[in-house]
Amino acid sequence: MRVVFLGPAYPLEMQQFTRGLAEVGAEVYGVGDGAAASLPPLVRKCLSGYLQVPRILDEDDVIERTRVWLRGREIDRVLSAWEPTVILAARMRERWGIPGMSVDTVNGFRDKQLMKERVAAAGIRVPRAERVVRTSRAELGEATRAAAERVGFPLIIKPIAGAGSADTYACRDAAELDEVIAKTAHVRELSVEEYIEGEEFTYDTVCVDGHPVYENVAQYLPKPLEARSEEWISPVIITVRDLDQAKIRAGVALGRQVLGALGMGEGFTHMEWFYTPAGEAVFGEIGCRPGGARLVDQMNYTSDIDLFREWARASCWKSFEAEAARKYNCGIIFKRAKGRGRITGIAGLERFKAQFGPCVVEDELLRPGSPRRDWKATLVSDGYLIVRHANWDVCRQICAAAATDITMFAE
Ligand SMILES: Nc1ncnc2c1ncn2[C@@H]1O[C@H](COP(=O)(O)OP(=O)(O)O)[C@@H](O)[C@H]1O
Ligand SMILES: [Mg+2]
């Protein structure tokens, strides 16, 4: 089994996927834009070959260089577990006749308007939405206002190819819309979307032949858009141990339908959905790759399994061997320091650990001396704690305590 894996070392999680591929017996050929000499030892050990390309997002160039590099070697899979390269992987598969999802299928997981159209065509509830393509500056306001008129307030404006809630805004009325039109003038393609009230969850899977062999739900506290709007918030995400509750079942049923509507094949999916006050599950978005910001680790801690390896097994051999009994709710709490510059101290951590120590499975908070990270650019912010507990309410309380009773400072 020879596998081309795009970006074997970056983002960080990819190193674990590289390991997973090697562990299920694949010969792994990495293609990335980092220097071979800078690959971490784990990745180097797991790779059978590595091609450094100048720009991993320059698709035509990467395809051509990879073709030359691989000449004469039969390849069985081309895989990516990172959103920006899922289309590139599909283009390589199509070009070389390698099994896996087509470009058209992957587009359904990448283009936010197309995915909603395909999901809606299958009779599934999605937010009303329109695509606005901005051609000229004069035109952009008009086109956006006209779309907003049809969609109705309150609404959401976001990039069609967005990520991490960047350039995403809620608008309650025409005045707010005008402000947002000005703020998003640099975005070429926008989605103007009905605002869905309610709680926000994920639905994550590993699939084989389009069917989930693994399922997970996690709750965002608060919703990602709010978490990205206010720096003082410590965003929390908790995997839900008990999937057998009415509201969660609604999301799981929705998610399964969506996988069918989009023609999923093998690998990870990461969907977001809303649970409305009226008790309805509404589709948000989906990608054919794992959630970022340590969600795979959270899922692993939820069941004491190794999804990095099982994703590899599903992708290479169409099989899944983990016993996925859900033992814990697993929460991650991202912290953002007060002040600018370097971390100077963490208040409340010792007390928190004295109280909840046995529930803490990772402490990756930045320590004094480290420079602060850009909280808008990375959800990981100034670090995080991962905790777990078998009882949902207790887990939520522990997360809330970490969010409110631990304070990081910087200057
Ligand atoms: N139609 C909607 N109604 C309410 N909130 C939304 C809607 N669309 C997006 N959001 C909020 O904005 C966030 C980012 O939007 P999303 O479509 O997930 O894009 P991305 O995660 O790729 O930036 C969501 O997680 C959610 O909090
Ligand atoms: Mg999202």
UniProtKB/TrEMBL annotation:
The keyword Lyase applies. Residues 116-316 form the ATP-grasp domain. This is Argininosuccinate lyase. SUPFAM superfamilies: Glutathione synthetase ATP-binding domain-like. Pfam families: ATP-grasp_4. It comes from Enhygromyxa salina. PANTHER family: ATP-GRASP ENZYME FSQD, FUMIPYRROLE BIOSYNTHESIS PROTEIN C. Keywords: ATP-binding, Ligase, Lyase, Nucleotide-binding. The keyword Nucleotide-binding applies. GO terms for molecular function: ATP binding; ligase activity; lyase activity; metal ion binding.
